[in-house]
Design a protein that fits this description.
heterodimer, A: 435 residues, alpha/beta, Fumarate Reductase Iron-sulfur Protein, Chain B, domain 2, Rossmann fold, 4 domains, 5-stranded mixed sheet, 4-stranded parallel sheet, 49% helix, globular, B: 489 residues, alpha+beta, Uridine Diphospho-n-acetylenolpyruvylglucosamine Reductase, domain 2, Uridine Diphospho-n-acetylenolpyruvylglucosamine Reductase, domain 3, Alpha-Beta Plaits, 7-stranded antiparallel sheet, 5-stranded antiparallel sheet, 16 helices, binds flavin-adenine dinucleotide, binds iron/sulfur cluster
Chain lengths: 435, 489
């Protein structure tokens, strides 16, 4: 599209923003894959509509408030990027736009909620504390104003014990690699068992694992919300702690992975820029890494299990990692991989979306979980803690005997020790709230 | 008065509209309306007074009655992929967005028909019918997004229309809400319809005769076999001549498509398809049908290609390779966005025998104007889609692109062709109608239109040359264009 924007005047986001707008040809090929368009059938809630509207605001034709609703409803799932034949980088446009303009046209309750999300979720200790506090209020969820209620409803019933990680786990026998493993912030509180499984699978595959102590948040949540300076600060802090004498830096959280893969962008104009570039070149999702390395054959499962794989948007669409996890799961004997009819479409988790746009997130989560139940699988595998929490909750609501939701790496870990089947059968035990 | 603030009659109309729809389906906020400003041809922009999103036929009928009463123009909208400004709103009118009416009502595997709502996406019909070994044949490149209603209005075609025909050959009947709100049935579920071909009249009417709300389409058995070949040529003329020879031989392939080097470059960058090294043009030939016929035709085709000036021939070895070839072809249009900041797309038709010559003349015009022209088109039926590449930030570039585009159209008319193959007249080509048909024919068409819609509320401002336009005119620059705000992609 033609536009009147001057890249230089838009600051560090300028080039990405103008590039995305000029490469959009308004063809609409992205429409059918956009979850909000599928649900609402309105142009303002389609990727093409949003790109056009953001352009209008940046040009001064519209006010940020005019399009706030449309932007707030966007899941940031990046499905539109996969569909776009013209290479529009919607993700960078959205991040840039949020940073430049996103209207603070919110009610005070919404602002309280945003504050609570952004000042707790990325900080493990505060998050742990907030969950404990929140749980006290959970029984009163119905009395709490609608804007804040979803946060309470998503809170887990129990928290696993706080995990202490070894700073180095060596391998026995031949060493095939050496990596840094990031533990994530919210994930480390909600489901440290994912990190545990990742260490175990990596070590079995001859990969030495370094876990730098004191890791904080990678800044993903802030980055996507357009809080660029907070994100840059978090990124610098994290980068200081990461040693560079490794083959790769791994993450088990798709949402973090997609931001880590943009670190050169996140750290632009800060002293950590060079390190940011290094990290961007070395960061990989744990499945991506294992797939490239070549998985040593796991023992497999003692009994046939049907497992549905759910693509986390930030893995499939933002990082283009779709086949690697499927190939890894495909190597497990007695595991039958089930494709969901709506594969590739968002479950409504999308970062903190299920907190910010509960209505749409509800519908997406419910539809996805009902579809999973119809496929009659024994379990669901996915690559992101947010999706796990969202799916788990909706599966429980739709079924008395819901299949458990695991991280892909957990399924692999169990395939290396086949006696774990009884453990796998029990959905309740495997909920992300228990380690 | 701020833009789009309704007049007193308008306000009354809006109030009545709000009685018909729940609040979330009457859109009137600035941001909501702005999103509907244009279709696939972004040079035409105009904000409507309101947008409604109906759920059923009764709502549509009631809405049209209201529009009649108040003389408010309306435009039906599918996915807004029209490339001729067909669904650009009227500033004093409303948009009727049909996207929630996207249910497939019935698939009848015995009759080989499907009944669908207008907002159903073209490809979804084939997906639903696939289970029975059937598919919906017309396959515009935009088939993953465009709606059946929009296809009907524009008589959309696609790569395989050479053998199977356009939308008009595949729509058997439709329930239509006429401009005055009356619900009628045109055609019926059979191929041998008696009486005047009213369905035929409606298909291609660009939303001027009302809104199709329930459409019965024909389904075909999926071909058992395909044979898809990518043939490289040293130039466009050689590729064009090969097409003429193939068709003249009596062989009727499912599809015959040409791409030039620029569109190949774009497709390679967008979806990673690889083309024969050094080829300046490629021809995609696809044979389809029963295994036996394809086997025989394969040999016939091989002989024809050997006799042509082909420099390389690649046969798709499996379904995956075939899909890749088509992916490259179907995404080429949008992919041009990767090699040029802006472009205009033209849609015109020339007799097949003139293909080679016209392509050379277009190349000449391109050289003269200093603008690159990418060509990717339905060669089998002589339907050209020259894409004129330019950089809108360069002063005067858009004007030169426009001028070149108009020259190409005139060139096609001179060679006995037509001003549109499938993208429709819409707003873009109204001025060319008399060139093609003559004034008396155009007048007759208008009388027919007034017979159904005396106030001309239905998609006002489209198709007829001298009508008051919703926003602007084609020839020359629109104010938005001169300010560099608008583009024709
Ligand atoms: C990348 C790209 C490639 C394309 N390739 C092709 C191609 O190969 N072949 C081809 O033919 N076209 C092609 N097109 C053009 C476009 O996709 C077609 O014209 C298509 O039929 C439009 O469908 P739509 O749902 O987007 O309709 P819209 O653009 O929303 O509307 C088109 C017209 O139909 C009217 N209309 C919509 N629904 C109804 C209804 N239910 N009843 C009455 N009138 C209605 C509208 O008022 C408007 O005048 C392409 C477009 C793009 C962007
Ligand atoms: S598919 Fe890409 S180019 Fe087309 S409208 Fe969507 S974002 Fe724009
Ligand atoms: S990121 Fe997801 S929700 Fe947002 S516009 Fe793209 S597809 Fe739609």
């Amino acid at each position: 599209m033609l536009h009147e924007l001057e890249s230089e005047k838009l600051g560090p986001h300028g080039p990405a923003v103008t590039q995305a707008i000029s490469s959009c040809v308004h063809c609409g090929f992205c429409l059918p894959t956009c979850p909000t368009y599928q649900l609402l059938g309105e142009e303002e809630n389609s990727p093409r509509g949003r790109i056009f509207l953001m352009k209008e605001v940046l040009e001064g034709e519209l006010k940020p408030a005019d399009i706030a609703d449309s932007i707030d409803k966007c899941l940031g799932c990046a499905a539109c990027m996969t569909a776009c034949p013209s290479g529009v980088n919607y993700d960078q446009l959205l991040t840039g736009y949020r940073h430049l303009k996103h209207a603070r046209t919110r009610t005070w309750l919404q602002r309280v909620r945003d504050f609570m999300v952004h000042s707790t979720l990325p900080y493990a200790e505060r998050f742990r504390w907030a969950i404990r506090m929140g749980r006290l209020f959970k029984p009163f969820a119905r009395l709490v104003p609608a804007t804040i209620r979803p946060m309470l409803e998503l809170l887990p019933d129990r928290l696993p014990a706080k995990a202490e990680w070894p700073s180095l786990t060596k391998v026995e026998g031949r060493r095939r690699g050496r990596v840094v493993l990031l533990t994530g912030c919210a994930q480390d509180v909600l489901a440290p068992r994912i990190t545990k499984a990742a260490i175990s699978v990596l070590v079995r595959n001859g990969v030495e694992v370094v876990i730098p102590p004191g890791q904080g948040c990678c800044g993903a949540l802030s980055w996507h919300a357009g809080r660029a300076s907070v994100a840059a600060k978090m990124a610098s802090d994290l980068l200081q702690r990461i040693p560079q004498d490794v083959d790769a830096v791994l993450t088990t959280t798709a949402g973090c992975g997609s931001t880590l893969k943009e670190y050169s962008h996140v750290t632009t104009g800060t002293p950590a820029h060079q390190q940011g570039i290094w990290l961007e070149q070395h960061v990989k999702d744990v499945c991506e890494y294992l797939d490239e390395l070549g998985l040593t054959q796991p023992a497999g499962l003692p009994r046939l299990m049907r497992v549905a794989y759910h693509d986390a948007c930030h893995l499939l669409h933002a990082q283009k990692v779709g086949q690697a996890p499927r190939r890894l799961l495909g190597k497990i004997k007695n595991l039958q991989l089930v494709e969901l009819p709506s594969a590739g479409s968002c479950c409504g988790s999308a970062g903190s979306y299920n907190i910010e746009q509960p209505g749409l997130a509800e519908v997406l989560g419910r539809d996805k979980s009902r579809e999973i139940l119809r496929t009659e699988v024994h379990a669901v595998a996915t690559g992101n803690i947010g999706c796990m929490v969202q799916l788990q909750r909706h599966l429980r609501e739709s079924s008395n005997n819901p299949p458990p939701v695991w991280h892909t790496i957990e399924v692999l870990e169990r395939a290396y020790r086949p006696r774990s089947l009884t453990e796998m059968d029990s959905g309740a035990q495997m909920s992300p709230t228990v380690s | 008065m701020p833009l789009n603030s309704p007049t007193i009659a308008g306000a009354e109309f809006l109030a009545k509209l709000r009685e018909l729809y729940p609040p979330e389906r009457v859109l009137t906020k600035r941001g909501q309306l702005a999103a509907y400003e244009s279709d696939g041809l972004t040079v035409f922009q105009s904000r409507p007074m309101a947008v409604v999103v109906p759920n059923d036929i009764e709502e549509i009928s009631a809405t049209l009655k209201l529009c009649q009463t108040y003389g408010v123009p309306y435009v039906p909208r599918g996915s807004g992929t029209s490339l001729s400004g067909g669904c650009v709103p009227h500033a004093e009118g409303i948009v009727i967005a049909l996207n929630r009416m996207n249910r497939i009502l019935q698939v009848d595997p015995l009759q080989c028909t499907a009944v669908v709502e207008p907002g159903v996406i073209n490809l979804e019909i084939s997906k639903a019918a696939s289970h029975y070994g059937l598919y919906y044949a017309p396959d515009p490149s935009s088939q993953i997004v465009c709606t059946i209603g929009g296809n009907l209005a524009f008589n959309a075609g696609g790569a395989h229309c050479l053998k199977y025909g356009m939308t008009s050959n595949h729509v058997l009947g439709a329930k239509v809400v006429l401009p005055d709100g009356e619900i009628v049935m045109l055609g019926d579920a059979s191929l041998e319809h008696v009486g005047p071909d009213l369905m035929g009249m409606f298909v291609g009417s660009e939303g001027l005769f009302g809104i199709a709300v329930e459409i019965t389409v024909r389904l075909l058995p999926k071909p058992a076999a395909f044979h898809t070949v990518l043939v490289g040529y040293a130039g466009m003329k050689a590729a064009g001549d090969a097409v003429a020879q193939i068709v003249a031989s009596g062989l009727l392939p499912g599809a015959l498509e040409i791409m030039d080097s620029l569109s190949m470059e774009a497709a390679t960058r967008a979806v990673g398809v690889e083309y024969p090294v050094g080829a300046k043009a490629v021809l995609i030939v696809e044979l389809d049908g029963t295994t036996e016929t394809v086997e025989i035709e394969k040999l016939q085709l091989q002989r024809l290609l050997e006799a042509s000036a082909a420099t390389a021939t690649l046969v798709a070895a499996n379904a995956e390779q075939r899909a890749k070839i088509w992916k490259g072809r179907k995404s080429a249009f949008s992919a041009v966005g990767l090699i040029s900041p802006d472009f205009l797309v033209q849609d015109c038709v020339v007799p097949r025998t003139k293909l080679g010559q016209v392509l050379e003349e277009i190349e000449q015009l391109s050289l003269e104007s200093g603008l690159r022209v990418a060509n990717v088109f339905h060669a089998g039926d002589g339907n050209l889609h020259p894409l004129i590449l330019f950089d809108g930030r360069e002063p005067g570039a858009l004007e030169r692109a426009e001028a070149l585009s108009a020259k190409i159209i005139r060139l096609c008319i001179q060679h006995g062709g037509s001003i549109t193959g499938e993208h429709g007249v819409g707003m873009e080509k109204r001025e060319f109608m008399p060139d093609l048909f003559g004034n008396s024919d155009v007048e007759f068409m208008r009388q027919l239109r007034r017979a159904l819609d005396p106030q001309e509320v239905s998609n006002r401002g489209k198709m007829f040359p001298d009508m008051e336009a919703p926003s602007l005119r084609l020839v020359g620059l629109h104010p938005l264009e001169s300010q560099g705000i608008a583009s024709r992609m």
